[in-house]
């Protein structure tokens, strides 16, 4: 991105931040003053004329506006519309243009018309927490300067907006909490984006091995239970950029490849509510930036490697609802730890002996099943002591 374009985006991001947006809401004193005169730029500027057509079409497509947000959306001076932010065009410092639309938390109902594609200089498009329905317009593919799109927490349906794939500057894609369905194109993982949130939709796709090509710092694919797939050993390829990986309830059935230990910038890793099998690789102990680790509700077994619990920044380690049979004492010193519902002798709130013994009689884990490539898991431990039955008030500390 050129310096001018970066500045354009920076200005718009600041303008569109929720804090500033709310401070721009009219105070009673402002409401009594006369409306500002139209800016001269609005009178002969084809960019603002197109924006006028786009925003009026959007206003017409809004069927309910309980907070009266679009009340000010009248006349050609679109830069004074509530939630609309103008800046000098990146390619013409003399021309003002609409660079941001921020209607977050607007509770607006309606649809998104194709005319939105007329906002040709739009860099920031924030519509989160509204009630927009229907599909995302194809014309989003015309927004060649789009940097951030956040349409999360709406009622949008239809397929993944593939029209976003050709936008060269797109960095932030937030589609979570909608009713989008169908395939997620693998190409989204090849795009140079910073953050991808697609959780809580009805997408139907298997995590492709190529997801590890992504250079995003945040990837959230949670609650896509039909996702399916593996954690590939190429996961270590994301070491340079990945800060946060949330694959909660994503239907993954594989072992955890030791290459995950290469992710030394990763702070948050959530693999809970999947069908992970085998043991926790000790290599996780190389993930020196890790602060939050959640592997709860899987089929993991064996001992918790001490190296994980020695990680210097680990604050919250959740491994409940697995079949772990041992944990070093060091693990209980992690500030937040949840080891409940495992098979750990001497610990409170574990699985019944029947469940733990039943688990041992399952066929051995094949990490390469389901088409996944991962190293074979070590054989189950030979000696196994079921946890003793807990007596109520047996000297357990209550805090
Ligand atoms: C509007 O701008 C166009 C192109 O920049 C120019 O040719 C035209 O004369 C201008 N019209 C007025 C009324 O200023
Ligand atoms: C919206 O604002 C206008 C003008 O302030 C007012 O007349 C109208 O009643 C408002 N509507 C709602 C639903 O608050
Ligand atoms: C993406 O990942 C796949 C599988 O890991 C690999 O074969 C392919 O070459 C990668 N593509 C790019 C563009 O790096
Ligand atoms: C610790 O992690 C668990 C699982 O991700 C989460 O539910 C819990 O809120 C976290 N606790 C703190 C204090 O961050």
From TrEMBL:
Instruction: Region Disordered: list its residue ranges.
Output: 378-399
Superkingdom of this protein's organism: Eukaryota
Q: Which residues form the signal peptide?
A: 1-16
Alphabetical GO biological process terms:
cell wall organization
Reaction catalysed by this enzyme: L-threonyl-[protein] + ATP = O-phospho-L-threonyl-[protein] + ADP + H(+); L-seryl-[protein] + ATP = O-phospho-L-seryl-[protein] + ADP + H(+)
Q: What is the protein's given name?
A: non-specific serine/threonine protein kinase
Query: What keywords are assigned to this protein?
Result: Cell wall, Cell wall biogenesis/degradation, Glycoprotein, Hydroxylation, Kinase, Leucine-rich repeat, Repeat, Secreted, Serine/threonine-protein kinase, Signal, Transferase
